[in-house]
Amino acid sequence: MENFVTWVLAGATALGVAVYLYLDHQAKSLRTRVVEIPGGLRFEAWGFSVEMHRAAQLIKVQSNNGQVTRTPRGGGEPQVQNGPLELTLPAAGLQIEVVRKSVKVESQEEPLSTGHCTITVRGPDASQPDHAPELTHTEVLKIPRVPESVGQSFQQFAGRLRVWVEKTEHRLERDRKEQLRKEEDAAQEAAQEALLAEARANQAPDAILTEADVAAIADTQVAGWRKAAGFTGTASEVSVDPDGRVAWFIDLANDGRVTLHADKRTIHTTLKGASIDTLGGELDIGVRDDYWSEDDPTLKFFRIFKGLPADKRRAWKEKLELVRNTLNAR
Question: pTM of the predicted model, to two decimals?
């Protein structure tokens, strides 16, 4: 009898320990938290974690049981790796999905939830070299059989990630456009110097230029800009320095197309959406360049009409505003 009681007590104790361990494991598998790390945040769950690193503009994913697929940029057979994984991905171009898994049951109209979901972390598309020139593969990580409650918790963290990714992409795109604008400005300055050199090719370096010489040199520069623009304006003004270099220039067509030149920069655009303001004895004209968009409505500014009489400057301002307003109303 005593042996029987002993066996019963031992069995009950073992069962109790097993139940406790099972419940403890279940609790751990459903536990999540977000902690601060140097320069970022980390989402922690049973079996995986995701880190956001702000300064480095990347995320790190660690999974005890995941699948990563790497597709070469130039095509070819994707490489698949399963098991414990660590993956580092750039923030720009990152996509995150949390998909609930369900099964179709014949007796049920709606699919039944399995209680699990799959987390997919998709890196930047390497087939778009303009956006990701350093990438050789497109990487996609899947973390399967994530408890649904963990997936819901991660979904909230993923929302914060998406906001951060969008801000990062916007900042990188702004920096890219700014760099392109600087490169274009440098190219335009070099182009003006080339035009100036072409116009003065028949002049001795130390020759004293006559008014006719200065006018001819300026005309060569203006002709080059009109050729590049593809139109000749019906109204124009130009200011030239004693060496024949054009200080500022405006060429306005009836349909709103305009060529502007100032500070060794040139643009061929339209007055749609332009800003036109008086600044001292000049007009400060902001126009859309090739990189303008509704999301990044940055205007490129040209200050012109320095030295022009006030009455002519006012007349030009009225003309430009009229054309601008007509274009905006369309």
Answer: 0.62
